[in-house]
Automatic annotation (TrEMBL):
Keywords: Exonuclease, Hydrolase, Ligase, Nuclease
PANTHER family: BLL1145 PROTEIN, CLEAVAGE AND POLYADENYLATION SPECIFICITY FACTOR FAMILY MEMBER
EC number: 3.1.-.-
Protein name: Ligase-associated DNA damage response exonuclease
Keyword Nucleotide-binding carried by entry: no
Enzyme class, spelled out: hydrolase
Residues passing through the membrane, by range: none
The organism of origin for this protein: Teichococcus oryzae
Domain of life: Bacteria
GO molecular function, a single term: exonuclease activity
Length: 353
């Protein structure tokens, strides 16, 4: 007897992707009785579910951001590569390479395997476990940067551009907009690897998540809060690097910095018009999502004859997969509006801060 196709035991509900035999949703957009959460960004980790299953790191992130009462009334930690059986459905979490604790959700039922990748990237990142391809019958992929124009350079390349700008303008502060969860810590790690051993200065919105990363063994070096000027009209941190939410340059808070060079770390900075519209002086193409080439390479690696595509450029990716003999399907999940996957110039951390 042939194994049932995953389409026969999952369905899209107003809350999101639902596994019928298991009785749970994956990254639901609304409160549900049972949820599996792929990672801690708030467009995936919503509050007020009755029961939540995730990696220990994701549960810690959810608790830090949502509070004890809203991060799941019951929490169950499932470390990478351990398996739990829920109503006959085998559930395993494997690394997604997106942010600390991010996981692909591997579901197996009656000989059929579905992998829900969540958000993922394939570039090296010392602040989280790397993506692991899992062969499957159906692969669910994001499509945030699923256009050929989006090809992300190595992190070291963009970090070097930042350091060159600091050397060129030592009389100015450098204000780098980056998401508080994942992007900030990855950029810090990249700066340390490039030899920047001076303190890095953080907006308050970034500090708490950096402390959480450090509590999970991720060394980030010396981090300091941005000081207040001692005198009225005085500015601070000329020649230093300040990491803040992407909206910080438009906030009165930034006026304390000495003639700041505004930078923004985002995969969307590949599009010059978007950098220009935002007034970004130093666009840094740094993303925690897979680019066009890595999306196609990943779909090939998992060897799935069918790929379900969600939140992003579904049509372009589905067309490219069809040319490779892979059937594509757009899931059209709702509620994926944050991180780089939604409004490209607004960070979810701004609201969280």
């Amino acid at each position: 007897m042939a194994a049932p196709h995953p389409e026969s035991w999952t369905r899209i509900t107003p809350e999101g992707l639902y596994c019928e035999p298991g009785g749970f949703h994956i990254d639901p957009a609304r409160p549900v009785p049972r949820a599996i959460i792929s990672h801690g960004h708030s467009d995936h980790a919503r509050p007020d579910h009755d029961a939540v299953l995730a990696t220990p790191e994701t549960l810690a992130i959810m608790t830090a951001r949502l509070g004890e009462g809203r991060a799941g009334r019951q929490q169950q930690a499932l470390p990478y590569h351990q398996t739990l059986v829920q109503n006959g459905v085998r559930v395993t979490l494997v690394p997604a390479g997106h942010v600390l604790g991010s996981a692909q959700v591997v579901l197996e039922w009656q000989g059929s395997r579905l992998v829900v990748s969540g958000d993922y990237k394939r570039q090296p990142d010392p602040t989280c476990a790397p993506f692991e391809p899992v062969p499957c019958d159906v692969f669910v992929t994001e499509a945030t940067f699923a256009l050929p124009v989006f090809r992300h350079p190595p992190l070291r390349h963009e970090v070097q551009r930042l350091l060159e700008s600091v050397a060129l303008f030592p009389q100015r502060a450098h204000l780098v907009g980056c998401y508080a969860l994942g992007k900030c810590q990855r950029l810090i790690a990249g700066l340390r690897e490039a030899g920047w051993d001076r303190p890095l200065y953080l907006h308050g919105a970034q500090a708490a998540m950096c402390r959480l990363y450090e509590s999970h063994g991720i060394a980030l070096g010396e981090l300091r809060p941005v000081p207040c000027p001692q005198k009225r009209g005085e500015t601070v941190l000329a020649g230093e690097i300040v990491l803040a939410p992407p909206s910080a340059e438009a906030n009165p808070w930034a006026r304390r910095l000495t003639d700041p060079v505004t930078a923004l770390a985002s995969g969307w900075m590949r599009v010059r018009q978007r950098a220009k519209a935002r007034g970004v002086e130093l666009p840094l193409v740094i993303s925690d999502h897979a680019d066009w080439d890595d999306l196609l390479a990943t779909c090939a690696e998992v060897e799935a004859p069918e790929v379900w595509v969600t939140h992003g450029r579904e049509e372009a990716l589905i067309h490219a997969l069809a040319a490779r003999g892979v059937r594509g399907r757009a899931l059209h999940l709702i509620g994926r509006e944050e991180d780089e996957g939604g409004d490209p110039l607004l960070a979810e951390e701004e609201a969280a801060a």
